[in-house]
Amino acid sequence: MAYDYALVHLKYTIPPACLLTFILKPLLTKLDLYKTFTLILVAFFATLPWDSYLIRNGIWTYPPDAIAGPRLFKIPAEELFFFVIQTYITSMLYILLSKSVLHAQFLTNKDDSSLKSRRIRMTGQILLIGCIIVGISLVKNGGQGTYLGLILIWACPVALLTWSFSGYFLIRLPPTCIVVPIVLPTVYLWIVDELALGRGTWAIESGTKLGWCLWGSLELEEAVFFLSTNVLIVFGLIAFDRGLAVLYTFPELFPVVPYMPPLSLLAKAVLLDPIKYDMARVKGIREAVQTLRRKSRSFYLASSVFPGRLRIDLILLVADDLVDEAHGESEATLWIKKLTNYLDHVYGSDSQPPSSIGTINNFVGENFPESARSALILLPTKLLPRNPFYELLEGFKMDLSFGGTKICQQTRQFPIQDEEDLEVYAHRVASTVGELCLRLVFHHSTAKLPSDKESILVLSARTMGHALQYVNIARDILVDAEIGRVYLPSDWLKQEDLTAQDVIKDPTQPKVEMLRQKLLDWAFEEYERSRDIMNMLPHDVRGPLIVAVESYMEIGRVLRERTGVPSKTRKGRATVPRSRRMWVAWKNLSTI
């Protein structure tokens, strides 16, 4: 019986902690562990004197035959372990649910927040101040409200502090990331507590409690305690994430951010006056996230395992959707010309040196609509070479060479005539992006590679770009046909007695499906050529990049599994179920 409290941990707290650790292990980073164990230390030393006071004053008691014996400041070892294990469980659940969230997009200040948000924040402050006043009153009066009063006095000031500093940020976060990590562990611990109180593992003295039970033996005070502690844990994690978001989002304010930022730097970020936030940058990041989620859910999910500023820069790069903003062939041609001029301003040309930031911003403001400006202004061109951008524009020109939608089908041009054209197109629109992404990885990685390895990886990225673009073409045959485009090589069509017009007329016919599978074979050949070389990447970015590639190649695997038009489509495109994408990420990260 002396191990009754220990058995509570063995049966009820250690198993969920182990399960969450197993699920999260491939996704956990050193930064996640740093955040979790920092919070455990804070929770432990913040709870220690409070819990000791309760025991010393006979408010909370433990039967001698329910605990093993060792104590610290009168607190049983099992209770000390509860401080740790509860914080760990709630932290792991929060990290799991918020892993895919880019916190930078939720940074805000009073001017950027809605009237509703300001009212919610003020209401929260009033309620927490009210709870503190009630707690003081209950403790002052003594008797049956003592324990509840002590809980309110201990928990509410900390909650008020975190709410005041991070309230606007917290309100903008997805509710799932806040509510579930609070409610699920709370309800679970209520059940555990009800069982423990019923068995007499611990007890609250009758003279210091109200005597109200939610159900069975679960006292109101215990229910409030577990709810309060989980709120504090989640609020603390959110404050931590807000500090990291500030550090990563504003390089002009924090030029150098260590991978494991010291607590002093995090505190400086949390306490930074939000009026100093560059909200134009934040809004640009929000727009980029929305664009990327629309363009490529696979890459957006994969981006969640990229560290800090690298994730932000990659999203700003990959989400750039400027040519798609144009409507019609003539407008797209004009946009490509303007984008070329923009690159000339950024990188300089034979006739002019690079322009100043002010000149570039003025050019963007005068030549592009407001919806497109942030994508250009925030594009991390300073970290990237010029050639891939110019090659990318050549790929856009190939798209335009198909001709406009008003041109008669019989006179429409189809620039992908043979396999060489297909490879050139894939290089221009995909290999260039792959190289740019890799250049960002080299810049942000904590481990620097020798130049020869970087060159090998760049060549591999270009090859992988071919593979990903072939998958993209194979996926979009139906979508492309609807706008009068056929990216399958014309000589492939000729071998099957087809024309491009035949594909446009019926993109689901068996011969087209056969060519889709041929293109996928090409894709996986290129993939196999470059996949092993990815193991040369620095360890801190290897996993995220592999997940990004595998998440997209999974579309090809889906297309291989489901010949004909896939049963699960989105706007004519094959999609990979979210659960399967998550499995791909988990599986690949767990083997690295």
Give a verbal description of the structure.
By secondary structure, this protein is mainly α. It folds into 2 domains: 4-276, no CATH class; 299-306 and 386-590, Farnesyl Diphosphate Synthase, CATH 1.10.600. Helices cover 69% and strands 3% of the residues. The protein contains 24 helices and 8 strands. It has helices at residues 4-24, 30-56, 77-98, 115-141, 146-172, 175-199, 220-249, 263-271, 279-295, 297-303, 308-318, 322-325, 329-347, 357-367, 370-377, 387-400, 419-444, 451-475, 477-482, 490-495, 500-505, 510-531, 539-561, 578-590, and strands spanning 60-61, 71-72, 75-76, 203-204, 213-215, 218-219, 569-570, 573-574. The strands form 4 sheets. Strands 1-4 form a two-stranded antiparallel ribbon. Strands 2-3 form a two-stranded antiparallel ribbon. The relative contact order is 0.07.
Sequence-ordered SSE layout with sheet pairings:
Blueprint: H1 4-24, H2 30-56, E1 60-61, E2 71-72, E3 75-76, H3 77-98, H4 115-141, H5 146-172, H6 175-199, E4 203-204, E5 213-215, E6 218-219, H7 220-249, H8 263-271, H9 279-295, H10 297-303, H11 308-318, H12 322-325, H13 329-347, H14 357-367, H15 370-377, H16 387-400, H17 419-444, H18 451-475, H19 477-482, H20 490-495, H21 500-505, H22 510-531, H23 539-561, E7 569-570, E8 573-574, H24 578-590
Antiparallel strand pairs: 1-4, 2-3, 5-6, 7-8
